[in-house]
Amino acid sequence: MKRIILFSFLLLIIATAFTYSTRVITGTITDDAGKPIIAYIQVKNSQKGASSAADGSFKIEIADDNAVLVVSAVGFERKEIKVGKDDKLTIRLKASTE
């Protein structure tokens, strides 16, 4: 009986670990000329977000490969990027025409 309880407990721990596993995405945000810009990055439909540093670099956690990042910066068009299997991204934003 103790083995069954222990085995069940271990399965629960493993299932929980897989359910809440995340991975870290890193990258750089630049303008069309390749100059780094400060931007805000948010995981679509979630509260998770991060800002890029002055050199354009960022780091953000995502839950799975289907995550979409929404990137925005003052004076630039908003952009959505599906992450997929990539762990490192280079994101170029276009200057806003407005």
Provide key terms for this protein:
alpha+beta; four-stranded antiparallel sheet; Immunoglobulin-like; 1 helix; elongated; 98 residues
Give your account of this protein's structure.
The chain has a 4-stranded antiparallel sheet with strand order 3-2-5-6, with no helix packed on it. A 3-stranded mixed sheet has the order 4-1-7, with no helix packed on it. The chain has 98 residues and is α+β, with helices and mostly antiparallel strands. It has a single domain (22-93), classed as Immunoglobulin-like (Sandwich). It is built from 1 helix and 7 strands. It has one helix at 2-19; strands spanning 23-31, 40-43, 49-51, 57-62, 68-72, 79-82, 88-93. It is elongated, with a radius of gyration of 18 Å.
Helix content: 10-25%
Give the N-terminus to C-terminus distance in angstroms. 69 Å
Give the overall silhouette. Answer: elongated
Please identify, by name, the CATH architecture: Sandwich
Structural class: alpha+beta
Give the rounded overall mean pLDDT. Answer: 87
* Strand segment count: 7
What is the element string, with H for helices and E for strands? HEEEEEEE
Order of the strands making up the biggest sheet: 3-2-5-6
CATH topology: Immunoglobulin-like
